């Protein structure tokens, strides 16, 4: 009898185990799979080997002059723009030595024109010159500022300006320009050296040939940035796959909405600030450092308050705007709909011109800077790309 009872108990236990196992398998199969989630994965970025673009001064007859940096002993360094990703619209410019790559900057001074130099790890500055076929060294300077852009030129012995370009091995051309993120004359201090602007190789802008440069008689005046340009406000929109433009707004913690605009504050519109207009203040809009797969885009208040930046659908649904992937110095910014699809974000001028809204990294580090204590991953700009 005992054996019979043991067999019955063992049989019941076995069937209960099988039933529990089947329930567990069924529950696992019914759980949400990764493929069905609405969270988009970060886009893959094409990896490329460094491509070095030659930096040249271009004479009126089309001939080119080498551009070099020189240390205090006369040793020369090649000047190159470096393409290190699948974009070539915003490239670093470096002085290339035997085993080092030195940043190239426009330096702060009290003169009308800003000198250009490479800065060593020890804080030494190496002047940058264009070299004629006779071996003469021509100055290269930051000639005039237009908003966030400083136009750079070589200067002949006769005082004439010559353009500066980066030329890729396959013949593509970028302009060499100074880039400013800060409004003031001083951009930063690097290795103890006061910097006026960062030097980058950028796609040529359509209207820069029309910009008025200072005359030779004005060269000795002290530099002080002023402009009488009448500001132009560009609208920021998220563009759906079927061509609809969605408003982009800033939201405070109470749900109040504020305009987000690109501001054209000078003749140039290839590199413009994006601001949130909040109760009489223009707040900077940045991509924030985050451990999330996609980096949030926010405005930062005077006291460090965060304002979320969202796109609004016709049904008043708020869509996240995020930095979704990085291509070298460019962060691709997208609005993300309920299905996890990406929408482009663009700036529209009143007369129909169009810029891309992108994140810009000046430095090769995770936190670009801090604004009111908030860690910034990249600056949000409206750029010609």
Structural commentary:
By secondary structure, the chain is mainly beta. It has two domains: 51-204, no CATH class; 232-383, no CATH class. The chain is 8% helix and 49% strand. The chain contains one helix and 26 strands. It has one helix at 2-30, and strands at 51-58, 64-70, 76-83, 90-96, 101-107, 114-119, 125-131, 137-146, 149-155, 161-167, 173-179, 188-190, 193-202, 232-239, 245-251, 257-264, 271-278, 281-288, 295-300, 306-312, 318-327, 330-336, 342-348, 354-360, 369-371, 374-383. The longest helix has 29 residues, at 2-30. Mean pLDDT is 88; it is low at 1-45. It comes from Aquimarina rubra. Residues 50-202, 230-383 form the DUF7486 domain. This is DUF7486 domain-containing protein. Pfam families: DUF7486. Keywords: Membrane, Transmembrane, Transmembrane helix.
Q: Which spans have pLDDT < 50 for at least 5 consecutive residues?
A: 1-45
Shape: globular
Please indicate the count of domains: 2
Strand content: over 45%
Average pLDDT number: 88
**Helicity level:** under 10%
Series of secondary-structure elements, N-terminal to C-terminal: HEEEEEEEEEEEEEEEEEEEEEEEEEE
Structural class, from helix and strand content? Answer: mainly beta
How far the N terminus sits from the C terminus, by CA atoms, comes to 88 Å
Tally of individual helices: 1
Major sheet summary line: 13 strands, antiparallel
Q: Give me the count of strands.
A: 26
Rg: 28 Å
């Amino acid at each position: 009898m005992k054996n019979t009872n043991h067999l019955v108990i063992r049989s019941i236990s076995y069937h209960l185990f099988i039933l529990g196992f089947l329930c567990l398998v069924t529950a696992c199969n019914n759980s949400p799979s990764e493929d069905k989630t609405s969270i988009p994965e970060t886009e893959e970025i094409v990896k490329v080997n460094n491509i070095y673009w030659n930096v040249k001064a271009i004479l009126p007859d089309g001939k080119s002059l080498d551009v070099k940096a020189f240390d205090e002993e006369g040793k020369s360094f090649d000047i190159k723009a470096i393409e290190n990703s699948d974009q070539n619209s915003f490239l670093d410019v470096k002085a290339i030595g035997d085993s080092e790559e030195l940043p190239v900057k426009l330096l702060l001074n009290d003169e009308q024109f800003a000198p250009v130099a490479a800065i060593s790890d020890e804080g030494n500055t190496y002047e940058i010159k264009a070299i004629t076929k006779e071996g003469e060294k021509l100055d290269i300077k930051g000639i005039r500022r237009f908003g966030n852009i400083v136009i750079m030129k070589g200067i002949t012995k006769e005082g004439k300006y010559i353009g500066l370009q980066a030329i890729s091995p396959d013949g593509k051309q970028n302009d060499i320009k100074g880039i400013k993120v800060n409004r003031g004359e001083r951009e930063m201090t690097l290795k103890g050296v006061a910097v006026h602007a960062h030097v980058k190789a950028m796609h040529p802008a359509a209207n820069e040939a029309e910009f008025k440069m200072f005359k030779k008689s004005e060269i000795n005046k002290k530099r002080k940035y002023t402009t009488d340009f009448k500001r132009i406000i560009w609208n920021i929109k998220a563009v759906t796959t079927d061509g609809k433009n969605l408003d982009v707004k800033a939201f405070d913690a109470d749900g109040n909405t504020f305009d987000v605009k690109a501001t054209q504050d000078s003749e140039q519109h290839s590199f413009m600030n994006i601001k949130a207009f909040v109760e009489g203040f223009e707040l900077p809009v940045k991509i924030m450092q985050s451990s999330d797969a996609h980096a949030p885009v926010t405005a930062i208040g005077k006291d460090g308050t965060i304002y979320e930046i969202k796109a609004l659908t016709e049904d008043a649904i708020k869509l996240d705007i995020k930095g979704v992937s990085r291509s070298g110095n460019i962060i691709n910014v997208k609005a993300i709909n309920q299905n996890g699809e990406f929408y482009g974000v663009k700036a529209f001028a009143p007369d129909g011109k169009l810029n891309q809204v992108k994140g810009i990294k000046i430095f090769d580090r995770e936190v670009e800077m801090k604004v009111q204590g908030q860690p910034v991953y990249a600056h949000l700009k409206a750029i010609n790309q």
